[in-house]
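Deliverable D4.2, example record:
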Amino acid sequence: MLSVHARHDDFYIIEKPPGLNFHSEDGPGFVVLAEQQLNEKLYAVHRLDKVTSGLIILARNSTAAAEFTRLFTTHQVDKFYLALSDAKPKKKQGWVKGDMIKSRRSSFKLLKSIENPAITRFYSLSVAANLRGFILKPFSGKTHQLRVALKSLAAPILGDPLYGGTSAQRTYLHAYALCFSWQNQQYQFVCKPDSTTLFRQLIEHENFHTWQQPWQLDW
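Output generated by the structure prediction step:
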């Protein structure tokens, strides 16, 4: 059963578990499961990688879908992610910018050029020995953008072997919050990650409270 975080006449906010394909591949994907659970036609307006958990907007009609597509295309939906790494990053906060090209095994790599760059800003904190938490905001919408960004910082996401991350029970990347304006009203949604995993150490950290309303950080 998928967790529905919000219900609006035009959209749902639904939590995707890790390891579930967004579109149907080997069995029904996230969108189909949501349609079956809610018994209505739904429209995908953005997506998450199979390995990523967290919040997704699904539109309830074609008009809303077109408007959300416009909002995403013009970067008017703010998205915030949490990640964990067991490696020390080259820097503790800042920007990661660069063009991305396809690499080996369905992966991508970051270039130093900035013709059509992937742009990410992040903050981090030390959670425990050999465990660092990150909050990231993408300013572009490239495939695998955050996974590539953290690899470029020499801190690949824990449980992301495609990008050199240490093997773990899951890939520790979570779509944590969404913020957008809809029909002249501001909406903000937050979804903490599964506390039965290593994410618990992050969300119980004494400084995590500064990330609880991520749109208020200095981006």
